[in-house]
């Protein structure tokens, strides 16, 4: 491919990336270095916004919640997604039925899914079907007024929304696992768990890294689920970094401080993704 042809083909993507990503990012960086609110002009404050945020107890609380949320959701997506993929790989005849059921959360908009999921646990509006079933089993959890209940509710909703993606990725990987190592392991007397541990899972290590990376990015910037279910409560214990940035920017009208909050979120996502990117690059080199 000639350089001119490559330029013509890449130009639309470069323009789109510049307009939708680079320009807003530069604007956010500029705002984060200024004191700015609605109806006022920019006032240069340098790193004062960042220093104020780093000393804020609200930031520490939201950072703790976000990190715990990312770890919890990512772990469950990997474990349950791989388990579902193994089930689908085994149940060949009923695979189409299970795949149809798995695709439902993927086509539901996140806000709608979070809203409906929250309704299933609310008895005060007469829709709490899940809560009704738990009550029949003698389990009574305050999902919206207790911190553990609210966190569990958000984690469950996020896993339900994204588990299909992880399962489909792992299922695709299982279809291309070489048969020869599995047959050799059977001859050597390896049981089912040993085959999963020493043959299949190492073969899918790249997919585990990919699913982990996608989960970290999605979970770290969670906002919509919190906005329509817990609203950051109780007492702000379920406020993520993105939700805190929204509250500071639009509810408290401190756009400069909110922009700094957004930049800290971007930096946090990049730092969390570095190990996965290094692992992916290393595997790509080994595969060449």
From TrEMBL:
Broad class of the protein's primary localization: membrane
Alphabetically ordered keywords of this record: Cell membrane, Membrane, Transmembrane, Transmembrane helix, Transport
Domain ABC transmembrane type-1: 63-278
Gene3D superfamilies assigned to the protein according to its UniProt record, in alphabetical order: MetI-like
Keyword Electron transport: no
A GO BP entry: transmembrane transport
Domain of life: Bacteria
Compartments where found: Cell membrane
InterPro entries membership: ABC_transporter_permease, MetI-like, MetI-like_sf
UniProt xrefs under Pfam families: BPD_transp_1
Transmembrane region(s): 7-33, 63-90, 97-120, 132-155, 198-217, 257-279
One GO CC term, this protein: plasma membrane
Membrane topology: Multi-pass membrane protein
Record family assignment: Belongs to the binding-protein-dependent transport system permease family.
Protein's name according to its UniProt entry: Sugar ABC transporter permease
Organism of origin: Arthrobacter crusticola
């Amino acid at each position: 491919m000639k350089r001119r042809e490559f330029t013509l083909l890449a130009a639309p993507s470069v323009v789109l990336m510049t307009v939708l990503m680079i320009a807003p990012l530069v604007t956010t960086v500029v705002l984060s270095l200024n004191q700015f609110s609605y109806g006022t002009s920019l006032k240069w404050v340098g790193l004062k916004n960042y220093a104020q945020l780093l000393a804020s107890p609200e930031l520490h609380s939201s950072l703790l919640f976000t990190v715990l949320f990312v770890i919890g959701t990512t772990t469950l997506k990997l474990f349950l997604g791989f388990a579902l993929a193994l089930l689908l790989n085994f149940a060949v005849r009923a695979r189409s039925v299970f795949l149809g059921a798995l695709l439902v959360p993927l086509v539901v908009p996140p806000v709608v899914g979070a809203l409906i999921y929250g309704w299933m646990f609310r008895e005060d509006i007469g829709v709490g079907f899940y809560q009704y079933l738990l009550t029949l089993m003698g389990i009574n959890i305050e999902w919206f007024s207790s911190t553990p209940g609210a966190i569990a509710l958000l984690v469950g909703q996020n896993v339900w929304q994204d588990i299909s993606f992880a399962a489909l990725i792992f299922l695709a990987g299982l279809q291309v696992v070489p048969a020869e190592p599995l047959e050799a392991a059977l001859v050597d007397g390896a049981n089912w768990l040993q085959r999963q541990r020493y043959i299949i899972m190492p073969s899918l290590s790249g997919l585990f890294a990919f699913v982990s990376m996608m989960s970290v990015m999605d979970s770290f910037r969670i906002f919509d689920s919190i906005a329509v279910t817990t609203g950051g409560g109780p007492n702000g214990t379920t406020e993520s970094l993105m939700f805190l940035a929204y509250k500071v920017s639009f509810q408290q009208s401190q756009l400069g401080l909110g922009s700094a909050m957004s930049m800290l979120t971007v930096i946090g996502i990049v730092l969390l993704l570095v190990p996965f990117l290094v692992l992916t690059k290393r595997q790509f080199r080994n595969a060449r």
